[in-house]
Amino acid sequence: MNLTKSALQKEITYKTSRSGGKGGQNVNKVSSKVELLFNVDSSELFTEEEKLLLNDKLQNRFNKDGLVQVICDEERSQYLNKEKAIERLILLLTRALQKPKARKPTKVSKAAKAARLDDKKKHSAKKENRKIDFD
Questions:
Q1: What long-range pairs does 60-64 form, CB within 8 A, spacing at least 24?
Q2: Which of 44, 74, 111, 130 has the most CB atoms around its CB within 10 Å?
Q3: What is the DSSP-derived secondary structure letter of residue 62?
Q4: What pLDDT score was predicted for residue 8?
Q5: What residues does 79 pair with on adjacent strands?
Q6: How far is C-alpha 117 from the geometric centre of its chain's CA atoms?
Q7: 95: helix, coil or strand?
């Protein structure tokens, strides 16, 4: 899966608003906060199987309209916030599509079993030696 900014750009919608935080007098005039919205279901970049996986893994990232939402208001520039938001979306989608490696069950080795039994025997002998013989 090779997600590119240009491919995603066609399917992304943006909402901008005034951002809080640093910026001085400029903060009340410039809409630098970026809200990126991406619709997984109508995307042409993914197969149906991948869409199901994304819907499952990114459930908590959906807004009420069923769109993946990424908000960025770190920078003072709207352009930089858009770039950061796209990078975050790409990271989010690639992580969601990664399949974890299947765990191979392993057995306890014979040496480990023997060592455990040997320790049990030593511990048992130690306890046995502490007993007082009343006969």
A1: 61/92, 63/37
A2: 74
A3: B
A4: 76
A5: none
A6: 42
A7: helix
CA–CA separation, 1 and 96 (whole Å): 12
Distance of CA 100 to the CA centre of its chain: 12
Report the share of the chain in percent with pLDDT over 70: 91
Counting Cα atoms < 13 Å in the Cβ hemisphere of 82 gives 15
Dump pLDDT digits (tens) for 53-71: 888 888 888 888 888 888 8
Q: What is the pLDDT of residue 28?
A: 67
pLDDT reported for residue 1: 53
Residue 123: per-residue pLDDT: 96
Q: Which of 71, 90, 91, 89 is nearest to 81 (CA)?
A: 71
Residues 6+ apart with CB under 8 A from 81: 19, 32, 33, 34, 72, 73, 74, 75
CA distance 113 to 134: 36
Q: Residue 51 belongs to what H/E stretch? A: helix 48-57
Q: Could you tell me which residues come within 8 angstroms of residue 90 by beta carbon, excluding any fewer than 6 positions away? A: 3, 5, 8
By residue count, the chain amounts to: 135
